[in-house]
């Protein structure tokens, strides 16, 4: 067929021979497209009714019926959570269909300051938050998407680190470019889970994750944003000791803070 996608592989066969295997994979691509469209459509359709429900819940005054105040509080929290899941699903749908980003300079000094403030606001004094930068390089890419990815790692570090722990946000030059990393002294992740963490809704412990208010889509979004910026996610973790999530950016994505893209 004209729209066929053929995947070709060469497999060893016996000692001296090889087999050429050609497969039509267009049905897989079509099914994947249907899945993406379905998720995007459902999320889009859920957005409006959820906004209406949330709006009405906000209008209700708990003082009118004090006995119902805890129920109202829980309903508001859950409708907010559903709204966040829908927004994250829509973000993922957009990232999955996007092939490149509109490049802009993303100044790192103010971004690191914002990330520190976000960590402190979420932690509410329960953790020690530090920021270290040994380079003044800026990033090149989508400011909104990069902020959301880097901020996701910070909020995970806060959410999966018990009170009294520390969070270190780092921006460093490396042999292959520059690395942004977030280290925590939190619960850590058993090695057997590491390769699946960026799957949608994959969680090491469902009860702990739901309790901390995440949507289960954060690391999926991080991975897609990094892919769009040709960057790589590294995860190191030791249960009971903590984790480090690193984003490795190649030189093509880096700009000297004082010079423009053309000059650097
Ligand atoms: P969630 O909303 O559940 O946090 P994420 O996609 O951000 O979803 O993360 C997926 C899972 O990875 C989490 O549920 C948690 O089990 C684990 N995880 C992510 N970040 C950390 C971290 N810093 N420390 C320990 N576990 C983490």
TrEMBL record:
Any one GO MF annotation of this record: kinase activity
Reaction catalyzed: ATP + protein L-histidine = ADP + protein N-phospho-L-histidine
Cellular compartment(s): Cell membrane
EC number per UniProt: 2.7.13.3
All copies of domain Histidine kinase, residue ranges: 41-253
Stretches of the chain forming a coiled coil according to its record: none
Broad class of enzyme this protein falls into: transferase
Keywords assigned by UniProt, alphabetized: ATP-binding, Cell membrane, Kinase, Membrane, Nucleotide-binding, Phosphate transport, Phosphoprotein, Transferase, Transmembrane, Transmembrane helix, Transport, Two-component regulatory system
Statement: the UniProt record of this protein carries the keyword Transmembrane: yes
Function: Member of the two-component regulatory system PhoR/PhoB involved in the phosphate regulon genes expression. PhoR may function as a membrane-associated protein kinase that phosphorylates PhoB in response to environmental signals.
Name used for this protein in its record: Phosphate regulon sensor protein PhoR
């Amino acid at each position: 067929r004209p729209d066929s996608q053929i995947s070709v592989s060469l497999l060893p066969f016996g000692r001296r021979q090889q087999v050429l295997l050609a497969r039509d994979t267009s049905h897989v691509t079509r099914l994947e497209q249907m899945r993406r469209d379905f998720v995007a459509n459902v999320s889009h359709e859920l957005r409006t009714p959820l906004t209406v429900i949330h709006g009405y819940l906000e209008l209700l005054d708990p003082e009118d019926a004090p006995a119902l105040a805890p129920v109202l509080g829980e309903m508001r929290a859950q409708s907010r959570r559903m709204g966040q899941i829908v927004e994250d699903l829509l973000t993922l749908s957009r990232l999955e269909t996007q092939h490149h980003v509109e490049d802009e300079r993303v100044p790192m000094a103010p971004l690191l300051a914002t990330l520190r403030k976000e960590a402190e606001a979420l932690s509410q004094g329960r953790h020690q938050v530090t920021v270290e930068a040994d380079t003044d390089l800026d990033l090149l890419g989508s400011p909104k998407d990069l902020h959301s990815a880097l901020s996701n790692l910070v909020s995970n570090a806060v959410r999966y680190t018990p009170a009294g722990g520390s969070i270190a946000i780092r921006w460093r030059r490396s042999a292959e470019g520059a690395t942004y990393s977030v280290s925590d002294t939190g619960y850590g992740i058993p090695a057997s889970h590491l390769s699946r963490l960026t799957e949608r809704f994959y969680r090491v412990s469902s009860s702990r994750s739901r309790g901390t208010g995440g949507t289960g889509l954060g690391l999926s979004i991080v991975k897609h944003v990094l892919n769009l910026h040709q960057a790589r996610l590294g995860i190191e973790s030791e249960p009971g000791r903590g984790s480090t999530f690193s984003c490795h950016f190649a030189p093509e994505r880096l700009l000297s803070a004082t010079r423009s893209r053309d000059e650097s």
